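Anyone? Bumping this.
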Amino acid sequence: MGFDPGLATLGYGVIEKGKSLKPSMIDYGIISTPKTENLAVRLCMLEEGVKQIVAKFKPDEIAVEELFFAKNITTGINVAHARGVLLLTAVKECGRLYEYTPLQIKQALTGYGRADKHQIQAMVKSYLNLKAIPRPDDAADALAVALCHAQTNKLGKLFSI
Amino acid sequence: MGFDPGLATLGYGVIEKGKSLKPSMIDYGIISTPKTENLAVRLCMLEEGVKQIVAKFKPDEIAVEELFFAKNITTGINVAHARGVLLLTAVKECGRLYEYTPLQIKQALTGYGRADKHQIQAMVKSYLNLKAIPRPDDAADALAVALCHAQTNKLGKLFSI
């Protein structure tokens, strides 16, 4: 299971790696929280949403992208608040959490460290034999980190308790 | 109860506002997490520490400083991860959480929006009739936000669930 952290929209993607080389898609989607709610309530909603999704799919492992700030600091703070709650909840509910850098994800999916968002999404569609690119972007990004975990054979940094 | 968020060191300060005008100090201290542990484990340690302290002192209200980034982005990301867990845990355990900007804290304690760290700490010592400035800084900062909450009569932004 992969997660793409965010306060307004947190994406998740579930894949299965069976005996075949290619992983298959199980589900994807988002947990969203309304801007009209206060930050603490939104963090509680994210915790509850992550708990429910992990309980539903019972993943063997969870993969999350490492956080880098580049553009907007305010958005970055919000994402990091949400990501703190995500990491806490994911590791408590699943026990095996892996972190991947954006570079690792790009290289795992396209072989190219400077691939753009669209190239990554096209590879998600191709790897999982989907008819269209998953929407919204947050769900596609969550599938991308899950695929990175599967394709690299768990190369990421392991957070376990 | 006031908290000063941080990943390596999270400060807390407990004060009581009785019938007298001046609040009195109950306790202060820190929850610390080792750099040798992974991020997810450290977030679990913070959650557990906050839970225990809130359970011990059963505060009516909790006050936390709003987060602004200025200096180091990496430190900022870590603080925001920790702060997400702090807000989640505090609101779940106490129910009434207030947020104060650095400006509100400075003005409440010194009447001056550009007061420096040392001036704030001197006022914490003075307001609470302490013999020395509380150490470490994180604990003094936590007492400062608790005092701001008491002195401004709950002026901060309320996060409640």
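Late reply, but here is one note on the structure posted above: Residues 14 and 27 of chain B are 5 Å apart (CA to CA).
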